Amino acid sequence: MNILIVGGAGYIGSHCVRQVAAAGHRPVVIDNLAFGHRAAVAPDVPFYDVNLGDEAAVGKILVDEKIDIVMHFAAFAYVGESVHDPLKYYFNNVVATLGLLRAMLAKGVKKFVFSSTCATYGIPEKMPLVETMPQAPINPYGQTKLDVENALKSLALAHGLSFAAFRYFNAAGAAEDGTIGEDHNPETHLIPLAIDAATGKRPPLQLFGTDYPTPDGTCLRDYVHVDDLSRAHIAVFPKLETPGVGFFYNLGTGTPTSVREVIKAVEKVTGKKVPYTEAPRRAGDPPALYADSTKAKTGLDWKVKYNDIESIVATAWKWHSAHPNGFGK
Ligand code: UDP
């Protein structure tokens, strides 16, 4: 099938492009390179530098490339920024996405795979999280993702769109061969920052919060390998054959890992100390977030390959050690 990957030059999108090709499909990429890296996508993959909300341009690509399924990864994803500049998030993550969906419906392309997030749950009352738990985002980022989830339900009903929305936990790691990986600017994620602290590329890590009600006092998260995430997006294709259906899946390994455990894993994998200072809690961080991914594991032909934090960090280290300046070098 011909798969349009919107945001295919970004972190998760670029890994998905590879997995789509490995599964025997034909990836086509749209990315405006606001955050993505051209070098993250192989030169032989059709690449369009357009905005996802440009309905005329997107519509033409859908027709010219005979697109069967659209995957959408292009979103702003800095929680703090979303609090300070909500309009940026509503326009890009909601309004532009609605433009993409309108272009699809106008051209009769009715299969959609959407990157959602565990941030749609807000501060959950119980762990692990199952898909049926209440969604009450605590920041505009999570809210914009939930808004799109809700729009998708309406479009399924009204227009026969079939869709899957994946609620990601903490995407981490890099391609097995170390040729593509995480390169955000600014970087805010724990694993790349810990690796860069270990190598001395960045200052010591700040460990945000040591007084959480967790076994070692630091936050628990569910780190899931970016290639495992990507493979779920492809495993869902058969489900989208039925018009008007919609699916929501949590994607995580189900294993809670603390910040201190991540630091230990980085030290073990790199053979270097991670210098860090203990800092106050970061605003908006829930103490624990981890998934019950039974629905994806049983409902899709999908298995987690990277089950432990060390194997995930090992792939990240392969990428970062070979590319200390990311795609800049
Ligand atoms: N974290 C930290 N120092 C950092 C970045 C992150 O202690 O410099 C912690 C953060 O408080 C959270 C966990 O690491 O508990 C994962 O944060 P990240 O930003 O990677 O992902 P998030 O869970 O916010 O999506």
Task: Describe, in plain words, how this protein is organized in 3D.
The protein is an alpha/beta fold and 329 residues long. The chain has two domains: 200 residues, NAD(P)-binding Rossmann-like Domain (Rossmann fold, 3-Layer(aba) Sandwich), CATH 3.40.50; 108 residues, UDP-galactose 4-epimerase, domain 1 (Alpha-Beta Complex). Helix content is 37%, strand content 16%. The chain has ten helices and 13 strands. The strands form four sheets. It has a seven-stranded parallel sheet with strand order 3-2-1-4-5-6-11, with helices on both faces. A two-stranded parallel sheet has the order 7-10. Strand 5, helix 5 and strand 6 form a beta-alpha-beta unit. The chain is globular and about 55 Å long. The mean pLDDT is 97. The structure holds uridine-5'-diphosphate (UDP). Uridine-5'-diphosphate binds next to helix 6 and strand 8.
What sort of overall outline do the alpha carbons produce when their principal axes are compared? globular
Q: Helix and strand succession?
A: EHEEHEHHEHEEHEEEHEEHEHH
CATH superfamily of the largest domain: NAD(P)-binding Rossmann-like Domain
Uncertain segments are: none
Helices, by number, come to: 10
In what order do the strands lie side by side in the largest sheet?
3-2-1-4-5-6-11
Helix-and-strand structural type: alpha/beta
CATH architecture descriptor name of the largest domain: 3-Layer(aba) Sandwich
